[in-house]
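task queued by scheduler; priority normal; single chain, no ligands, no partner chains; default sampling; output format set to structure tokens
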Amino acid sequence: MWLMPVALALVACGSSAARPSNSASLPSTLTSGSGQAQWDTVVADAKREGKVGVITAPGDGYRRAFDEFQRKFGITVELLVGQGSPDLTPKIDAERKSGQFQWDVIVNDPSLMFGDLKRMGAMDPLRPTFLLPEVTDDGKWLHGFEAGWMDRDKSVAYDFVSYVSRTVTVNRYAVPESQLSTLRQLSDAAWRGKVAMQDPRFASGGAGVMAVWLVDKGEDSVRTFLRDQQPVITRDNRQLAEWVVRNQYPVGIAVSVSTLAELSKSGLDLKAVKPLIDDDPGSVKLSHASGGVGLINKAPHPNAARVLINWLLSTEGQTVYAKETGYNVRRLDAPVADPDSALDPAKRYVEVQDEEHIDAQVRASAIAQEVLK
């Protein structure tokens, strides 16, 4: 990944190799002629399987993106929706322990893949699924294809979403810039109890923001903010966005870009909902949202899984994903969904979401658990 050097200890995420899949191996690339025949065979087998099970995040945009895949290939997409580890890990673990293997692909937070799911042996290597040459075409990806790997082994978690998010969002109908124009001002007593945020006590956008503040400002700053400002927390992305849009809490931390896009499509007026733009390094965060993809171990629909993964990482799939979710993707031949959050290729950003640097997020969550009892 493209990283600003940060001296961080490594998180104990486990290093056991992913278990081999029971599914048939397939070539990693296609060539003309025989390659097209191989792809056609995989697609035909996938259609016979008839279904693919996908673990994904909450949001209508994700559903619409998978609907496009379903329409194109005639393969039913069954979704297991959950907001990160607290929602998904217990269910998946219980299913697997009882001998149920229902899911094929995960499109969610990459840390869930190289963390809980890898530890329970639920992830398979992803590279053997790459069939289409365009998927691994180095020139089609920001900073090259290899820059997308989020796990140390470059094996199980691939990131296709990267954008710069502003850590704080403000309803300017309620809070003009004359009252709040810098991140530093957010520590004023005037904002106590008026700030809402994604729950930072587990892997989430809220924890990611606290991790950036931890790296940039130190542990005391994170503790002081959480203790003194008494932010209202939620695990529901839509609830957080609506709180800010409807001015129940005029300031939000880690408000989802995709959810705001959904609210805008539903007709809500978002003209006054603005990011807090400041030169403070803590006001920006390199984000991947739920834009990671991985292959679940013992996939019951192995061919459908491969077809979906290749489609998702193709120009077409990335274009659909960006359009429906509102997130900027790393693929250079897909449109920019949100120019305001596009990465500057010349800049280096602090990474706190990949396996090499996730310990900052883990530490931030531990602090939040201690303070927000």
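post-processing summary
- The mean pLDDT is 89.
- The first helix runs from residue 34 to 49.
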